[in-house]
Amino acid sequence: MTIHQRLLKFVTRTNWVLFLITSAAGLMALPLDFAKGIVFGGLIVTVNFHLLYRTLKKSLTPPHLSSHRVVLAKYYIRFTVTAFIIFILISQHYVDPLGLFIGLSVVVLSIMIATLFELKKLLLKEAI
Questions:
Q1: Contact 2, 98 (CB under 8 A)
Q2: What is the pTM of this model?
Q3: Percent of the chain with pLDDT over 90
Q4: CA dist., res. 19 & res. 79, Å (int)
């Protein structure tokens, strides 16, 4: 397994684990609006990550190579839909904006954790 595959697998799994942990912690310990923000934010960003992965994988696989315009069009459509959903969630006061921000940070946190683990592996490998 290459480093790219290992990182992608780790980040994908960590996204769901962090989403479940933050959602459960939020629902148990925080006010409902704040917890709903964490849940909706985590769900939005995790689903977006998977959709982006699927779009890139389909467009870069040799038998089905797509033009970059198709990939960008799908990206901007997904971005617009996401922005609209976030706008509705905040403007209609369904969620707390800070909780939504924390939920939207799930993928960033999982990428940072993956980076730290890979750096640790690299540093320990060089030290031996």
A1: no
A2: 0.84
A3: 61
A4: 20
